[in-house]
Predict the structure of Enoyl-CoA hydratase/isomerase family protein.
Amino acid sequence: MGSGAVVSGGLRISCDKDTGVAVLTLDRPARLNAIDLATASELASAWRAFRFDDSVRAVVVTGAGERAFCTGLDRTAEVPQPGSPFMVDDPLLRVGPKANDCWKPVVAAVRGMACGGAFYLLGEAEFVVADETATFFDPHTTYGMVSAYESVYMAHRMPYGEAARMALMGNAERMSARRAYDLGLVSEVTPPGGALAAAVRCAEVVASYPPEGVQGTVRALWTAHETARAHAFAQSPHLIALGNLPPARQAELFSGRRPDGFRTR
């Protein structure tokens, strides 16, 4: 079986040339696979490279370690912002495949926490496989931040009321993999540690089909939500700029968080 592996900063990429499946791993387990600016740039580059690699016909995206798939933007990242509420620089807007015009099918494999900015990746995957340890939550409101882009992605993947509950409950509540499966956010739940293998099996099946039909289907599925998503995204910058607390106050709330103060449903 032919395969290749590339490690670049916060990413690890392996490609099996026989099956046509690439596995893209967020490889910052010590930071719960939070995405810093360098990793955000590497993700965008990886998706663009997949566009030109005909040997890659499907991609699985996952996170290293047992604790987290991804916990969003690394809070140590310094992101300068324009002074206008109509312009917000969000480094995570380019971390997903669709944002980089990559229409090869993507399956997400989730173990542990998936929260906040993780939804930029989950929202642009075709479907999600999670193991029983997976939990999903959005901590933005807890720390005085607007959940804008994340909520738009989730409102297209699950019932409105559940997306609203996740966004508004913040860090106080985590959605279990089983609950996420019941709502349609997750398409398969596996025993602990089994999500990656199950996602790869799905990707191998899809990669075995003629790629033109597969990629056209991915594009057609995305079109079903694209117009509404684009309109919602257009409102996000000034909502974030007007609704977010100053960074120093956010940091104060974050430093005072209680990691054991949540419940899972």
